[in-house]
Design brief:
Elements (H helix, E strand, L loop, with lengths): L1 H9 L2 E4 L10 E2 L8 H9 L2 E5 L4 E3 L7 E7 L2 E6 L5 E7 L4 E2 L13 E4 L3 E7 H10 L1 H27 L2 H16 E4 L2 E4 L5 H8 L3 H13 L3 E4 L2 E4 L2 H8 L1
Antiparallel strand pairs: 1-2, 1-7, 3-10, 4-9, 5-8, 5-10, 6-7, 6-9, 11-12, 12-14, 13-14
């Protein structure tokens, strides 16, 4: 676990979620980076390391809430399921972030679910122990507040986007955010290395897979994007940005 923990503590904590371009940095404060080795050891001493296979459930909406999960390796998607069974993705979280809020001290039930997107390792900190740790570790307490502030901004931005932008504008904005986060310059434009399926994109913008397929084809006809089974290519960033508003 030492190598994984060291990596999670040193690297940025990027998250992918819908927000206005430039609204706020998509990299959240790394929850573990500010801790000393001794403080991190104290967190580990009262926590349990859990492993999840790709596509498995980390926690489920409606289940009893017992604490938080700090991501050490892998990636976790948080999502809400409506009464009809339709899902909306809230965000994709990477190492250094925690999932399982907002009841970080436990109690009540989970308001949404968490799914491991790839093989994932987390540090499960139960609510009672987390409260005790925050009482005696000021760095951890500050890091938790900063992480909660970032999450509040993320979910507020998502609500704003859902309420003020059309689905097509949200999809265009999502592609721009993906390009900023994971894109690389190629002669034809910007290639997005993150491989989200049409279904994944639909769950992020609040639409359906069929609609995403149709809209991506419209973007292609307008010369803004091109797609292959392995990548999304943004050919005209400025045109896509103007479309997104």
């Amino acid at each position: 676990m030492a190598t994984t923990a060291s990596s999670a503590r040193s690297q940025p904590a990027p998250s992918l979620h819908l927000h206005e371009e430039g609204e706020h940095n998509s990299a959240s404060p790394n929850l573990l980076a500010a801790l000393t080795d001794e403080e991190y050891a104290q967190v580990c001493a009262v926590s349990s390391v859990q492993h999840f296979a790709a596509n498995s459930t980390v926690f489920l909406q409606g289940d009893d809430h017992e604490g938080i999960f700090i991501i050490l390796a892998g990636q976790v998607r948080t999502y809400y399921t409506g009464p009809s069974g339709r899902e909306i993705t809230l965000a994709y979280w990477s190492p250094g972030n925690f999932v399982g809020g907002p009841e970080m001290f436990g109690g009540g039930v989970h308001m949404w679910s968490g799914q491991a997107i790839r093989p994932t390792q987390v540090l499960h900190v139960r609510g009672r122990e987390l409260r005790q740790l925050m009482d005696r570790l000021p760095r951890l307490a500050v890091a938790m507040v900063e992480a909660l502030v970032h999450k509040g901004k993320c979910y507020s931005a998502l609500i704003h986007m859902l309420g003020t932008r059309s689905a097509a504008e949200r999809l265009a904005q999502l592609l721009l955010l993906m390009a900023n986060l994971d894109g690389r310059r190629v002669p034809e434009g910007i290639a997005i290395s993150r491989t989200l399926s049409q279904e994944d994109l639909a769950k992020m913008v609040g639409s359906t897979r069929q609609w995403v397929t149709t809209t991506m084809e419209r973007f292609r006809e307008q010369g803004m994007v091109d797609t292959t089974p392995s990548r999304i290519l943004i050919r005209d960033v400025e045109a896509l940005r103007r479309f997104a508003g």
